[in-house]
Amino acid sequence: MTKEFKRQDGRKPDEIREISAKVGIIPNADGSAMFQSGKTIAIAAVYGPKEHHPRNQRNPARGTLRCTYNMMSFSVTDRIRPGPNRRSTEISKIIEWALEPVVMLDKYPGLVVDVHIHMTQADAGTRCAGINAAAMALAHAGIPMKDLVSSIAAGKLDKTIVLDLDKYEDSEFEEGEGSTDIPITFTGDGKLTHIQVDGHITTEQLKQAIKMAREASKKIYEVQKKALKDSLGGGK
Amino acid sequence: MTDRQIIIPGEKIVDSGDFLPGEGTEKRTDGIYALRFGLAETSGKLIKVIPLSGVYSPRRGNVVIGKVEEINFNGWRININASETAFLSLMEVPRYVNKDGLDEVMDIGDMVIAKVWGINKRGIDLSIKSRGLGRIDEGIIMEINPHKVPRVIGKEGSMIRLIKENTGCSITVGQNGLIWITGNKVEDELFAKKAILHVAQKCFVSGLTEEMEKWFKEEKGK
Amino acid sequence: MKTPNITKQRIEKYLEQGKRFDGRKLDEFRELVIETGVSKNAEGSARVKLGKTDVIVGVKMDVSKPYADSQDKGTMMVNVELLPLSSPRFENGPPKFPAIELARVIDRGIRECKFIDFEKLCIKKGEKVWTVFIDIYSINDDGNLLDAAGIGAVAALKDAKIPKYDEENEQVLFGELTDKSLPVKKEFPISITFHKVGENIIVDPTREEEDVSEARVTIGSSKGIISSMQKGDLKALDIEEFNKILDMLEKTWNDIFKKINRNKILESL
Question: Who's near B222: CB < 8 A, 6+ residues apart?
Answer without folding.
Answer: none
